[in-house]
Amino acid sequence: DVCSELSWHTGTQPGRYWRWSFLEEAVVGDSGLRFHYVAAGERGKPLMLLLHGFPEFWYSWRHQLREFKSEYRVVALDLRGYGETDAPPHKENYKLDCLIADIKDILESLGYNKCVLIGHDWGGMIAWLVAICYPEMVTKLIVVNFPHPSVFTEYILRHPSQLIKSGYYFFFQMPWFPEFMFTLDDFKVLKSLFTSQATGIGRKGCRLTAEDIEAYLYVFSQPGALTGPMNHYRTIFSCLPLQHHEVIMPTLLLWGERDAFMEVEMAEITRIYVKNHFRLTILSEASHWLQQDQPDIVNKLIWTFLKEETKRKRE
Hints:
Residues 46-291 form the AB hydrolase-1 domain. The chain is of the alpha/beta class. Helix content is 40%, strand content 17%.
């Protein structure tokens, strides 16, 4: 059951962000949750499904929505608990098996049985797991700055430096306090993630504009808007065990080497788990926020991968 409506917002909401604001929703599967997404490109074209990370929402894919609509139906989702998508109140509703099932159900709600799946950060983790659990649904997998989940869990146990970089996973286990910290000083933590020298987009990157920052602040300043996103992390230690680990579709892994949260060594190790064509590209000057930081390069690399896979099939 997919319902669409045009919804042009005025007044209090950020200008450029809301130029996109045709609201589309899918009521999904057994969960009955309403998922908000923004789509570009004609219905009936091959589906490209985009999964954002933390603390983001569909808007982090704005450059890709524009770029790939010529050949794809491009759908950028607000994940469960994010933005305008429904946010169940209990943390048990954010277990990884629920998040994986969401993607399967959304695909079906959109009228597709397969897609090019692209994920960044936490959305990358979900994309890997969907590709492993439902390989028939993913024609090509593209992940940005997140290693294969088995690499991540094995690496973090052996490398204290990565454990420290992932310290926020542990911090987010606390109830209510992490949300409160994010709101202090007009959401200073949220802004600094994207703009500070340590974690943000660098001097050579495509820095977020004041309007971009305003869009993020608008979404995450809504009442309760941070609890759903943090609940994703609050179930991580009870995550489903993987029955198998192999990825069998062509896979592209893109990585910003200046990622403050993920050590680049994990990118190369990921190769072990991909039993098909695997391409890894590491961008030396780029940050964790790669598809926003270097959109032109990222888009070119994705086009090259998609076209070389089409050519490979013909041969």
